[in-house]
Design a protein that fits this description.
With 208 residues, the chain is mostly helical. 79% of the residues lie in helices and 0% in strands.
Amino acid sequence: MALQEIIKEIVKDTDLHCRWLNTLSLMENTGARKISASEHKTEVTLLVLKHAAEEHRHAYYLKRQISRLAESNYLTYADDSLLAPVASRNYLNRLDLEVCKYLKTTLGLQSYELKFAAYLLVTYAIEVRADALYPIYQAALDEVKSKVNVKSIILEEEGHLEEMLHQLKSFSINWEVYAETAVAIETRLFEDWITAVKEQLKHALTLA
């Protein structure tokens, strides 16, 4: 089942759709927290603060969208309010861990330099993914004339991608090599996550 078909099936079912929104909110929140965790104690740039704030706002916005679909039974990120909870929680953590290992091995980075480089590469890979995922989701929403929309997130994620490209180019002349590796790692982990979501979807549709 292609990603477009998976998302189309999700938006047809209110409970699955609410869990999907909550899961995306969890991921945006996790990303925001990781950005904050990568900050230097004193040398915090306006761009990093902006990016963290916008990711937190995305998490809030997605969670608020749930009220357009149902009475709020999805107040927290508890497992029974998410899709593929274990895989969803592990996705960004594994990406961060694997990118850090790659940077240690390739560049020998440590401490803050490692955190900052990982922030650049992980965020870039996630923005590439968001740039593909959210438009597919919005198309599925438009098809069913849903009250939910993610158009504002799409615009901001496009801006984030441009900002990350600019930072990566300043980081290293070999940024493309590092970025391609990060994207390859993310692609593998995303496929693992989507497989877990698909399995839960199949189970839910079988019981319906």
